[in-house]
Amino acid sequence: MTGAIENAPVTVQIAIFIACGGVIVIAGSKLAFVADMIADQTGFGEAITGAVLLGAATSLPGVITSVVTAADGYPSLAYSNAVGGIAAQTLFLVFADMTHRRANLEHAAASLVNIVNATLLIVLLALMLSAATGPAISVFGIHPVSIICFAIYLFGLRFAQSARDEPMWRATETEDTHADIPDADAEKTPLARTLAIFALCLLAVSAAGYGVATTGVAFVSSLGVPESLVGTLMTSTVTSLPELVTTIAAVRAGALQLAVGGILGGNAFDTLFASFADIAYRDGSIYNAISTSDIFLTAMVTAMTGVLILGLLRREKRGPGGIGFEGWSVAGLYVAAVGGVFALS
Questions:
Q1: How far apart, in whole angstroms, are the C-alpha atoms of residue 176 and residue 311?
Q2: Cα(178)–Cα(174) distance, rounded to whole angstroms?
Q3: What whole-number distance in Å separates Cα of residue 278 and Cα of residue 291?
Q4: Is residue 86 within 8 Å of 272, Cβ to Cβ?
């Protein structure tokens, strides 16, 4: 299929790319509402459900894109799609913050689980940087860091669950803090039906993710656009659209912890895109095949996440323009990251 799209006219490639993006938006927009119901029906809570179920579900198009492009021999495209998606999704929190007019989102959605997930994300990004800048090591074409990241991610999920069940730190509740209170109406819908709807949405976004991957490869080969630019600005943004839609939808529905948890948990899961891509890439470790711009982008995303943690800890009620200092800082870092990728490509 990839070869057929590469040989198709540019207008057809763009049309397929846009159509796949539309499917991702429509199917992804339903995931937030269904995930909120699952959180209430199972008792897992919004932050955990957002981090694990919603985060992983909305990340499926990105996983497929990174794996397909890596298998096709485009390591920089696969890697930048992963890290570029994390950058875009972190920026989406700023947009969601603008829609919550009552208080700064990081203040209202204060949760130890969200802080744990953000810290986990920094650890995973740091390991990816070490793999890209350290000695060229691979076992059967896979860097040991790819396996380590899987193990640390699973440990992080368990740690986050224990932090929710037996917290040793609590956010001070204020009049603007939005507690995670289950919706009684959610019990009226059978859990099996809710899960079935969720599964159908997953199938739709997965198929669309494959379409984005194949058209991304076509853009690189037929148009000559650098892999890092396609991954950072095109495939990562389109495959991250479910996060934007679901985050804003969750904020408007009052599921604030689900919104923040979905982004942070999804970002932590998105680092595993590189691990999946490393396995799919058969010419050695993918970390040793990426470009300088990819390494720069990873460092900037780490900084964006660090600023977000500071925002969750400081809990500024409202800053200039209706968002906190971390919102303006994250937006500025994103612009600087994109500018750096352009300059280095």
A1: 15
A2: 9
A3: 15
A4: no
| Tens digits of residue pLDDT in 143-173 | 999 999 999 998 988 887 776 667 656 656 5
Q: Left, alpha or beta for 322 (phi > 0: left; psi -120 to 50: alpha)?
A: left
Q: State how far the Cα of 100 lies from the Cα of 255, in Å rounded to an integer.
A: 11
Q: What is the pLDDT of residues 17-48, one digit of tens each?
A: 888 888 877 777 677 667 767 766 666 665 56
Q: Which residues contact 60 (CB under 8 A, 6 or more apart)?
A: 202, 205, 206, 209
Scored b (16 or more CB within 10 A) or e, 99-113 reads ebeebbbbbbbbbbb
Q: pTM of the full predicted structure?
A: 0.79
Tell me the one-letter amino acid at 28: G
Dump the DSSP string for 167-209: -SS-PPP-TT-------GGGGGS-HHHHHHHHHHHHHHHHHHH
The per-residue pLDDT for 180 is: 47
Q: Which residue do the tokens 């942070």 mark?
A: 264
Q: Is 222 exposed, middle or buried (0-12, 13-18, 19+ CB in 10 A)?
A: middle
Q: Which residue spans within 173-306 are E strands per DSSP?
A: none
pLDDT tier for residue 113 given thresholds of 50, 70 and 90 = confident
E-only strand ranges, the chain = none
Other Cβ atoms within 10 Å of 187 Cβ, number: 12
Amino acid sitting at position 52: V
Is the pLDDT assigned to residue 328 strictly greater than 60? Answer: yes
pLDDT for res 221: 74
Cα 108 to the center of its chain, rounded Å: 21
Name the residue type at position 50. G
Are the C-beta atoms of residues 273 and 125 closer than 8 Å to each other?
no
Check: CB of residue 340 under 8 Å from CB of residue 332. no
Q: Residue 128's CB: how many other CB atoms inside 10 A?
A: 28
Domains within the chain, CATH numbers bracketed: 2-172+191-344 (1.20.1420.30)
